[in-house]
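2024-03-11 09:14:02 INFO worker-7 job=invfold-0412 stage=load source=structure_tokens
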């Protein structure tokens, strides 16, 4: 049964440890998205992540494949959470938020 009202979209949440141990070694079927600003991304980023700042994300949805799981990170987990909700509303099935973001990345 498809939920029409008052439903929270299903967004998977993972830790940075899970990202490092389970997601990054097996990139098949995944699209890695960093929604921080360009300067934040330029100063420090994880190899394999594509930068699309949250402010302009809706303009770049056509570049994000809907058939892949989209793994989203930001600095703390707040912008990536917003981005995940936006992606779900845009019809993306599998969306994963990295809790704690780059603040927790070692």
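2024-03-11 09:14:09 INFO worker-7 stage=emit residues=106
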């Amino acid at each position: 049964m498809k939920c029409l009202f008052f439903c929270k979209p299903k967004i998977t949440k993972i830790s940075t440890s899970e990202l490092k141990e389970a997601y990054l070694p097996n990139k098949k079927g995944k699209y890695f998205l960093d929604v921080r600003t360009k300067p934040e991304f330029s100063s420090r980023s994880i190899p394999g992540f594509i930068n699309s700042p949250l402010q302009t994300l809706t303009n770049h949805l056509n570049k994000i494949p809907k058939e892949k799981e989209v793994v989203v990170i930001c600095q703390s987990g707040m912008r990536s959470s917003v981005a995940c909700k936006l992606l779900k509303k845009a019809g993306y099935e599998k969306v994963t938020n990295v809790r704690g973001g780059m603040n927790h990345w070692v």
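2024-03-11 09:14:09 INFO worker-7 stage=report msg="The first strand starts at residue 12 and ends at 14."
2024-03-11 09:14:10 INFO worker-7 job finished
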